[in-house]
Design brief:
alpha/beta; 7-stranded mixed sheet; 4-stranded mixed sheet; 17% strand; globular; binds 5-S-methyl-1-O-phosphono-5-thio-D-ribulose
Length: 343
């Protein structure tokens, strides 16, 4: 798999996911504002990938400071962190990553610019590596729920492309596949931005893992025909009571799974759990540009000009619809998070 994001030649190199699957192109950012723009425009997306990319953006921002005044450096870094944190509101991994970078800066004596810049880069690179390891670990735990011959329905893209590598929901699939289990993934296309069709189908095909693409409104019929044994999705933020915010349409999949007696799992790193948000109602839901709904891939109109549009990027699945949360610490009940996870 091509890396989602990396540090290359003192730049942040981002695989431009808005062009996939047609083109594999990279965006080389020499400025933290370019990184922020890439997050806002979904060139890099998926909660863990957004967090890691923001951390690299902060490291890049630190290196852009060209003056010698160390007081000015602190003000510059406050601005860098603020700009990156303002890119997208729902994925808590973004704020988790920015806070972690801020803590590193606070713990580094402001005596040498070089040392501060180096420490921030080391931390961002450590986060990148950690994310892959965490996904591999949660993948192994999750593989236990997949039986040989199972078909798994997923929504959006919670794969290698949504993380620094390996993936969360697709990390579970990859781990089961690597164990030699026969399986098939059904990928919801995921309107309006088509992360399922463009990204999930692409990355599974690249890895030779069997995948069948369906439109979102086919999931019910698929379950009714007993073609799916379990659903696994990712998460952008998990509240303390186990409610999960994930890509719009996830809630519909969870309701359908409940109606058909099919287990519905969420795969996410512990960094996606936000114990400070008591329940799903407190999760900020991003609303995006109406053109994502009225136009096909930013060009052809598929709705009348001027029509009113509601375009929330995420929805909240209540904890009672969730069979388990697959993390790097094992599979947790959504109802036991505050006792199992320390804030
Ligand atoms: O708007 P996106 O593409 O950033 O939304 C991504 C999702 O909803 C993913 O399912 C979630 O971030 C988990 S990624 C491991």
């Amino acid at each position: 798999m091509v890396p989602t994001v990396e540090w290359k030649d003192n730049q942040v190199r981002i695989l431009d996911q808005s062009l996939l699957p047609g083109e594999v192109c990279f965006l080389d950012c020499t400025d933290f504002t370019c990184v922020a723009e890439a997050i806002r425009e979904l060139k890099v997306r998926g909660a863990p990938a957004i967090g890691v990319t923001a951390a690299l953006g902060i490291a890049l921002g630190a290196r852009q400071y060209s003056q010698t005044n160390l007081d000015g450096f602190q003000r510059h870094m406050d601005n860098v962190c603020e700009v990156l944190a303002a890119t997208r509101p729902t994925a808590v991994n973004l704020f988790w990553a920015v806070d972690r970078m801020k803590r590193v800066l606070a713990a580094t004596p402001l005596t040498s610019l070089d040392i501060c810049q180096q420490r921030l880069l080391e931390e961002a690179l450590a986060m990148l590596e950690e994310d892959v390891r965490v996904n591999q670990t949660l993948g192994k735990y999750g593989a236990a729920i997949i039986q040989d011959g199972d078909s798994i329905l997923t929504h959006c893209n919670a794969g290698a492309l949504a993380t620094a590598g390996y993936g969360t929901a697709l990390g579970v699939v990859r781990a089961a596949w690597e164990e030699g289990k026969t399986l098939r993934v059904f990928a919801d296309e995921t309107r309006p931005v088509l992360q399922g069709a463009r990204l999930t189908a692409w990355e599974l095909q690249e890895d030779g893992i069997p995948v069948t693409l369906i439109t979102d409104n086919m999931a019910g019929a698929l379950m009714q025909k007993q073609q799916v044994q379990c659903c696994i999705v990712g998460a952008d933020r998990i509240a303390a009571n186990g409610d999960v915010a994930n890509k719009i349409g996830t809630y519909s999949v969870a309701v359908l799974a409940k109606a058909h007696g099919i287990p519905f799992y969420v795969a996410a790193p512990i960094s996606t759990i936000d114990l400070e948000t008591p329940n799903g109602e407190g999760i900020p839901i991003e609303e995006r540009n109406p053109e994502e709904v009225t136009q096909l891939h930013g060009s052809r109109m598929i709705a009348p000009v001027g029509v009113s549009v509601w375009n929330p990027a995420f929805d909240v699945t209540p904890a009672h619809l969730i069979s388990g949360i697959i993390t790097e610490c094992g599979i947790l009940s959504p109802h036991e998070l505050p006792t199992k996870v320390s804030s």
